[in-house]
Amino acid sequence: MLRILLIAVISVFSTMSFASEENKYSDQEYLDRPLMERYILDELKQLRIEQQDLERRLTIQMTDRELAVADKSLNYANVTVTYFFYIIAGVASLIALVGWQSLKELKHTTKEMADRRLNDIAQDYEKKFNVLERDLKRKTRIISENNREIEIINEIHNLWLRAQNAQTAEQKIEIYDEILKVRPGDLEALTYKADAAMDIQEYHWAMSLCNRVLEVDDQNAHALYQRACAYARLGAEGQAIDDLERSVEASGSMRELLAEEPDFEMLRGLERFEALREE
Q1: What's the total number of domains in the chain?
Q2: Is 118 contained in some domain?
Q3: For the whole model, what pTM was predicted?
Q4: Do 112 and 170 lie in a common domain?
Q5: Sign of CA dihedral 163, 169, 173, 178
Q6: Same domain for 227 and 171
Q7: Residue 6 maps to a domain
Q8: Residues 103 and 188 in one domain
Q9: Where are the beta strands (DSSP E) in the chain?
Q10: Same domain, 129 and 231
Q11: In a domain, 264, yes or no
């Protein structure tokens, strides 16, 4: 820039000098003018070259600065994005960790609840099954007992039919013994066995059988009647009449047997016996 100003000043002074001495140095002017123009052209050329060089350097500097700014911007953007992704990754990891812990805890809690519920259901059904099992066992036992009782009843019924068809007292006693084996302590079988014992004149045995019945049922009319027969055969008229009174009191149908009973021959004519018959 200083050189441009210097050339401009020289040009102005040269013009002024040329104007003032136009007439005086006219011949010399024609000689110096080409040199001056050459000098000016060279200076202008040099100025243009320097200006172009200056523009080139300025362009390079501006480009470098723009590249530096762009590089810094890219670096800043890269760092910012990197930090941003780091933050996102950290937050995501934290959320994932918390979420995993929550899911793990939820899974554990759900499993515990399911286990407790299944355990409660299992215990409830186990109790129901135990009750059902006990009920089934009880009903099975009752059914088995009923079936056994039915079998016993059928067997005893068949034995009673055989006893009715038996021809002798000994056969009847054997059948009554079979009944007592099936059902020990059967009072009816004992009284009928006492009746059969009376038929074979085993009066004490008959009395013993009747006593066994009366120990269980002291108002058994049939046992009282059979014992009265045994007492009458053994000559104990008073005890025989006492048992007859109790037998008739327990069952009025026993009165009808008194008139035809051969075991009471020794009692006929006695006031108490005859009064008992006539009532």
Answers
A1: 3
A2: yes
A3: 0.52
A4: no
A5: negative
A6: yes
A7: no
A8: no
A9: none
A10: no
A11: yes
Quote the distance between the C-alpha of residue 232 and its chain's center.
78
The position carrying tokens 């990197």 is: 82
Which residues contact residue 172 at a Cβ distance below 8 angstroms, ignoring those fewer than 6 apart? 163, 166, 192, 193, 196
Residue with tokens 């009920």: 135
* Domain CATH number, residue 219: 1.25.40.10
Structural contact between residues 267 and 240, judged by C-beta atoms closer than 8 angstroms: yes
Would you give per-residue pLDDT tens digits along the chain (279 residues)? 545 555 554 554 455 444 444 444 445 554 556 666 777 777 777 888 887 888 888 888 777 777 776 677 667 666 676 766 677 777 666 666 666 667 678 778 888 888 888 888 988 888 887 888 888 888 888 888 888 888 888 888 898 898 888 888 899 999 999 999 988 888 999 999 999 999 899 999 999 999 999 999 989 999 999 999 999 999 888 999 999 999 999 888 888 888 888 888 888 888 888 888 776
In a domain, 10, yes or no: no
26 is written with which tokens? Answer: 């006219």
